[in-house]
Amino acid sequence: MTRGVASVVLVSRVATDTRKVITVKPGIHPTWYPDARVVCACGNAWTTGSTKKEIHTDVCNKCHPFFTGEQRIVDTAGQVERFMKRITAKETLAAAVPTVEEKKAKKDKRRERKAPSAPEAPVEAPVPQSETPQA
Question: In the CATH hierarchy, which fold is given to the domain comprising 30-93?
Answer without folding.
Answer: Rhinovirus 14, subunit 4 (4.10.80)
